[in-house]
Write a structure and sequence with these properties.
Helix 1 (about 10-25) packs across helix 10 and helix 4 (about 95-105) packs across helix 10 (about 205-215). This protein is α/β, with parallel strands linked by helices and about 270 residues long. The protein has eleven helices and ten strands. The strands form two sheets. Strands 4-3-1-2-9-10 form a six-stranded parallel sheet, with helices on both faces. It has two domains: about 1-90 and about 210-265, Rossmann fold, CATH 3.40.50; about 95-205, 3-Layer(aba) Sandwich (Rossmann fold), CATH 3.40.50.1860.
Amino acid sequence: MRIGVLDSGIGGLTVLKTLIENLGAQEYVYFGDEIHMPYGEKPLAQVHEYVENIAQFLYQEENIDLLVIACNTATVASFHILQEELSIPVVGMIQPGSQLALEKSNNRHIGVLATRGTVQSEAYLQKLKELAPDCQVVQEACPDFVTLIEKTHVAQKEKEQAIFQHWTKLYQQDSKIDTVILGCTHFPIWQANFQKYLPSIHWVNPAEEVARQAKNYVPKEDKKATFTFYITTGKEAFTQHLEQMLPHLPMETTRIKIFDWKKRGYDGTKN
């Protein structure tokens, strides 16, 4: 089966990793739109314009059978529209993340760490309340996380300071929080750090439930996996992240390609 995965950068690789672990050998086509990163700081209408173009490219030219929107802000901006437009299954991040958080929480006091766009949309707040009206939800925007995580090297002290700064703001809103949704696909890259500094908290990576839901659409296949990566900036930094996060990719069936927005009649430099 041919599975498309789209994100604004490297965060979606955390979702791709989980998909590979759960779905096994499939044809994976990943699109990382780093030239427009971070999506979470842009108006949702602008994010939808990017996502619409990417999704149609993957659907029409790469002939994908399933689309995973591996970005929370992109899910907020485009999930319901793409569900209507495309004649293939579309899986987003918000509903799976909310469901998993409710499964893990012991007291239904849930925090959300996400981009500014996702927090302002209140998508997690609304979905959690829809699934469990009695739950308590607080949110914190972390606009600095994506920029830090996209760097190839960040000092441990800098990570620690950023994590505790935003955790403190969540805790001040609700001291009973026992579960936190990592509401941006970049954030699970630091999951080991979250768990190290705050081990009593259930840190929820929505990709776990995304993979479970995607599995419903994917037939079992016994063949060699293939990987195609489309990126919108240079290969060097992306390749470093790819080697760190997915070190066991079979290079003989892996391709990295540059997607040029301008050549396709769209001004990809527009921020």
